[in-house]
Amino acid sequence: MAAPTPSRTADWWRDAVIYQVYPRSFADGDGDGTGDLAGIRARLPYLAELGVDAVWFTPWYASPLVDGGYDVADYRTIDPAFGTLDEAEKLITEAGELGLRVIVDIVPNHVSDRHAWFRAALAAGPGSPERSRFHFRPGRGEHGELPPNDWPSQFSGNTWTRVPDGEWYLHLFTPEQPDLNWDHPDVRREHEDVLRFWFERGVAGVRIDSAALLTKDPTLRDFTEGVDPHPYIDQDEIHEVYRSWRAVADEYGGIFVGEVWLPDAERFARYLRPDELHTAFNFNFLACPWEPARLRTTIDDTLAEHAPVHAPATWVLCNHDVTRTATRYGRTDTAFDFATKRFGTPTDLALGTRRARAAALLTLALPGSVYLYQGEELGLPESEVPRTRIQDPMHARSGGVDPGRDGCRVPLPWEADAPAHGFGTHPDTETWLPQPADWARYAVDRQSADPASMLHLYRTALSLRRTVPGFGDGPLEWLPAADGVLAFTRGHGLTCVVNLADGPTALPDHQEVLLASGPLPQDGTLPTDTAVWLRS
Fold first, then answer.
1. Is 109 buried (19+), middle (13-18) or exposed (0-12) by CB count in 10 A?
2. Is it the case that residue 226 has pLDDT exceeding 50?
3. Which of these, 464, 442, 462, 463, lies nearest to 453 by C-alpha position?
4. How far apart are the C-alpha atoms of 531 and 508, rounded to whole Å?
């Protein structure tokens, strides 16, 4: 199979479609029920045929996997559950031969409590140089029995854990993920060395987890809602870190994408200045409900906040942390919010799938780059994992109220009639998270043979996006449209229309229908919850 034509070489990232792989759930090559690098390597041709430009891998490093690999014990070693460093290097090479660039994940806010630095810090005791790489502090109260401050956790629960010698250490996530002290030169030097380690092995870029959390107020003052600056989110000193990182990336022609959750558009844009990060995830779009006015405002705001720093927008509907699109769009509340996730939330899956198809065409028509989470191209719904099988720490730390994130991490179905739907190679091995019984209908082989499937829609859309002028980076102009309808042109006669109204709407004049997310009637109208690409 011929390799697909990549996006522009030097600035390929400005209009790329980047596919996110969660290694534990993509494909199992050794038959143990957990996805691995061997499984991924065997399925690389599928990604090339899909038509994406790059592949982002969530952490594959040595880890106790308390938080799905985001508790890293060693960045220079692949976790044995996934494979070896030699296999990772072969994967990067083989992906490149298929025209696929590779992006890896870095988690700079914290490490695993199994990391050599943290083990040394525990052994060394209070006041030691080893502890200065982290945030160890004496407690408050008469006997130091109270934590040093009142910071809220990103995962519910406490942010401080006391060790036997009486000191406390900071962890914004789980106790197994101690926060690093980014004022320490060892921390900065080590991460720059890690960046070089992976750039030298041929990766094209790095995704930065929790990118706004690294630097902390040195006094570790208490948190007060609404008082700025926040003591541990978006501290001004963080930009020194990313300017230094950008110099490293520029040595190799590498790029960064940051996970930056910030409501302030001006402060968000600071991360995208020419000497810092190349791109950052657009979470406002991801969380936006399926409502025309809200979507248009979010699109406008996103483009406006990127314009001053000349950075491309990124668009994403789902990732490994949020409810799958087909499920979310079928609910009464189509927005996403971690605080509102609950078991048993009803959904109309047929409605959600119809909207997810339309959202795919909307997203792929917008200017900038697009991130596509594994399984979205199959239209997978959120799985309600049995409580006894849930592994995500968000569930336990919420007291069992939050179902956690495992529902969007269930292993992919590849072959409808194979054991575990073709995810693994051993027929008697149970997958690490259970697959729903009805997932055969979502399997790759079955969808590949169905021209009306979600997979066929994505393959066609990605092919058109790559070959038809007007897509990718560049201007967007809104067109007059009826209430509840979004219509815009991208130039070269390319128009996208999305109908979110309660009834059908008339299509604008056009010469050709390039692609529609659902069947179009003969009367020249666009049904509700349907999108279309037109050429005039």
1. buried
2. yes
3. 442
4. 13
Report the C-alpha gap between 516 and 74 in whole angstroms. Answer: 46
170 has which bridge partners? 160
pLDDT, one tens digit per residue, over 182-193 is: 999 999 999 999
Amino acid, single-letter form, for residue 45: P
Report pTM. Answer: 0.94
Using one digit for the tens of pLDDT, what is the confidence trace for 452-489? 999 999 999 999 999 999 999 999 999 999 999 999 99
CA–CA dist 128, 133 (Å, integer): 10
Within 10 angstroms of residue 84's Cβ, the number of other Cβ atoms is 14
Specify the residue for token string 């969007």: 408
Cα–Cα distance, 349 to 489 (Å, whole number): 30
Chain-centroid distance of CA 232 in Å reads 22
What are the tokens at 400?
């069992």
The number of residues making up the chain comes to 536
Question: Which among 374, 210, 369, 366 is positioned nearest to 279, based on CA atoms?
Answer: 369
Contact criterion met (CB below 8 Å) for 394 and 66 = no
Cβ pair 409, 320 in contact under 8 A: yes
| Residue type present at position 210 | S
**Would you give the DSSP letter of residue 487?**
E
Q: Indicate which residues carry an active-site annotation.
A: 209, 251
Which amino acid is present at 97?
E
Three-class secondary structure of residue 160 per DSSP: strand
Q: Which residue has the tokens 């921390």?
A: 187
The residue behind tokens 């980076």 is 473
Closest CA relative to residue 110, chosen from 175, 61, 207: 175
